[in-house]
């Protein structure tokens, strides 16, 4: 990989140990992905925030480098493990709370924006078409490449942090123009958000780095978001294009049978003890839709609603939050359904959700059963 004189100097440690470490990560990543060079980025979005995922080693590493590391570009953060406003309502041990707050403080010390959201594309302005970014959150990386016309690889927690510090990323893979070798034709009629999530999950399994998807009407952001969430959980695929692609691409159909196969893989329970909504976190449009669907109805069981703090603040001003709380919803900011310690198999046997991403992590990481339903079905079946 070709480096400039300044980059070689930083790699040798002439700009300090932290910058040297960041360049080592980027060079190793670049060599592993056949990158030609490093290119400037304008925005980094970091994972590696939840103490459940990075543990003591991650917390100690961040605490150590935050003494002198500073991000050089706009940098935002994935969700952490709890909402500080209501952490006392949950049975979290003091060690978890202390370590999670340490992680938060380390990132803030480095100049990272404490967004704690997996949907940065809904709460920040999108740069101009073709802008290079470095997104570690899988659904956000796919959304950036496929819907926002940005360019990012599916970054790791380490490579995204290194990119945030240096302000550059390896120029390889999806940062370049690519031609998918698979086209998936959507054959499911009248799809809902669950259908799009299952399409994404299927595409993530059969695709390589990118796929074409045909047979879709024009997608709105909520449908795209569901598909990105599903795709990000099941493989390495990090981009989809609309259309057939060229005549040499392999054609695969996603029909009712394939959709049922995905449903059977993830749906492991006939009912849930609780309901979770928000994986990826809910945006203002989804909060508005949920409020409208409830129409004075109330949930008959516990319903946890995950959303970014900025969305919660907007929704409060409009009156949505008070209506959702009236309906029995627990509103949680700064955290997400996925990998949260707020949902524990010691207390919960199964969870009802409309999220494919949430279903995957609830089943495989939290170890609870999953009952998959569309939002419409959840409101119809679980409220009175």
From TrEMBL:
Name of the molecule in the record: Phosphomevalonate dehydratase large subunit
Protein family: Belongs to the AcnX type II large subunit family.
Entry keyword set: Iron, Lyase
Role played: Component of a hydro-lyase that catalyzes the dehydration of mevalonate 5-phosphate (MVA5P) to form trans-anhydromevalonate 5-phosphate (tAHMP). Involved in the archaeal mevalonate (MVA) pathway, which provides fundamental precursors for isoprenoid biosynthesis, such as isopentenyl diphosphate (IPP) and dimethylallyl diphosphate (DMAPP).
The reaction(s) this protein catalyses: (R)-5-phosphomevalonate = (2E)-3-methyl-5-phosphooxypent-2-enoate + H2O
Molecular function GO labels: lyase activity
Pfam families, per the entry: AcnX
Quaternary structure note: Heterodimer composed of a large subunit (PMDh-L) and a small subunit (PMDh-S).
UniProt cross-references to InterPro entries, sorted A to Z: PMDh-L-like_dom (IPR007506)
């Amino acid at each position: 990989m070709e480096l400039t004189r300044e980059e070689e100097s930083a790699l040798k440690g002439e700009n300090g140990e932290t910058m040297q470490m960041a360049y080592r990560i980027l060079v190793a990543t670049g060599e592993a992905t056949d990158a030609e060079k490093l290119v400037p980025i304008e925005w980094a979005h970091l994972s590696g925030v939840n103490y459940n995922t990075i543990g003591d080693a991650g917390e100690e590493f961040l605490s150590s480098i935050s003494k002198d590391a500073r991000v050089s570009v706009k940098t935002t953060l994935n969700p952490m493990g709890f909402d500080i406003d209501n952490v006392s309502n949950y049975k979290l041990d003091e060690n978890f709370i202390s370590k999670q707050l340490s992680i938060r403080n380390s990132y803030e010390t480095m100049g990272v924006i404490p967004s704690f959201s997996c949907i940065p594309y809904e709460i920040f302005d999108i740069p101009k078409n073709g802008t290079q970014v470095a997104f570690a959150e899988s659904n956000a990386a796919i959304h950036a490449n496929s819907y926002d016309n940005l360019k990012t690889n599916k970054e790791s927690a380490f490579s995204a942090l290194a990119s945030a510090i240096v302000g550059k990323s390896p120029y390889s893979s999806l940062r370049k123009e690519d031609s998918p070798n698979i086209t998936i034709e959507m054959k499911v009629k009248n799809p809902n958000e669950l259908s799009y999530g299952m399409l994404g999950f299927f595409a993530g399994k059969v695709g390589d780095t990118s796929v074409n998807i045909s047979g879709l009407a024009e997608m709105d952001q909520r449908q795209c978001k569901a598909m990105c969430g599903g795709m990000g959980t099941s493989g390495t695929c990090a981009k989809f294009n609309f259309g057939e692609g060229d005549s040499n691409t392999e054609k695969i159909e996603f029909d009712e049978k394939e959709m049922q196969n995905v449903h059977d893989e993830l749906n492991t329970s006939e009912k849930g003890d609780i309901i979770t909504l928000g994986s990826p976190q809910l945006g203002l449009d989804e909060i508005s839709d949920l409020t409208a669907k409830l129409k004075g109805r109330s949930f008959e069981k516990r319903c946890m609603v995950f959303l970014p703090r900025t969305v919660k603040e907007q929704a409060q001003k409009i009156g949505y939050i008070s209506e959702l709380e009236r309906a029995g919803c627990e509103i949680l900011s700064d955290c997400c359904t996925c990998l949260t310690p707020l949902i524990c198999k010691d207390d919960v046997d199964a969870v009802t959700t409309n999220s494919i991403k949430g279903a995957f992590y609830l089943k495989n990481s939290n170890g609870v059963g999953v009952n998959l339903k569309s939002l419409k079905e959840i409101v119809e079946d679980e409220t009175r």
